Amino acid sequence: MRWRGGRQSDNVEDYRGRRFGGPGLKLGGGAIIAVVLAWLFGVDPRLILGVMEGVQTTQVEPPPAGGVQQTGRPDDELAEFVSVVLADTEDTWTALFAERGAQYVPPKLVLFSDSVPSACGHAGASVGPFYCPADQKVYIDLGFYRELREKFQAPGDFAQAYVIAHEVGHHVQNLAGTADKVHAMQQRSSEEQSNSLSVRLELQADCYAGVWAHHADRTRQMLETGDVEEGLGAASAVGDDTIQQRARGHVVPESFTHGSAEQRMRWFNTGLTQGSLDSCDTFAAGTS
What we know:
Layout: E1 12-14, H1 29-41, H2 46-49, E2 70-71, H3 77-99, E3 108-111, E4 115-118, E5 121-124, E6 130-132, E7 137-140, H4 143-150, H5 157-176, H6 178-187, H7 191-220, H8 227-237, H9 240-248, H10 261-274
Parallel strand pairs: 1-3, 3-7
Antiparallel strand pairs: 1-2, 4-5, 6-7
Helix pairs in contact: 3-5, 5-7, 5-8, 6-7, 7-10, 8-10
């Protein structure tokens, strides 16, 4: 992936190296069940939860005393990579929103170690990369990338970029009002229906990640040979069936909350090949 020398985002907040006390992350009932199941079956809960866009909490934690350790443009290589990818998503979504007569307000991206306070609660690294709509921030402990590479066998810089682009996709859903509509529908739905809505929300974020990749390559030639395969490999690695099969030895489709490996790859590829927001309507289209 051709990222070196690219513009770095000024929307990075670096909390790495800081330690924060506080209560555990306040999760909705379904998320608590997911974490418990993850512990019972030996699965890293971050790959079940994925994002915290569905967290219901009334407590908003204040920012840590003394501010962040640094903001803007971190100078270590992996953090620099994240900053460049975030900047590229900003360029892409600013242009796409402008085409529709709207203004894109980019999210902040918070780097942290071990745990971090957010407007969705106090999150540990085990939650994994997540987007919090209450403060419009993406959170990531960069140690997740090592686990993605080693444990889940999804290596490569474009696999890492896919993770960021997926979380930014949730931010796009938040700005568009899609996330709020889905969460309101989930409150009136059965558990199975709620899971199905969650899957469609996740698949749309995958598709939006593909839309970003499409435009990053078309306008800035960022992709290299093998990058698409890396992205598809990452999407497959975090499929619900892949996780369940590894953990339990069998798959329970009605419990899916993020989509199967095939679904996640297919919708990421849809966004990648078509490059259009209209192609990402997972709620109108069948996802099976």
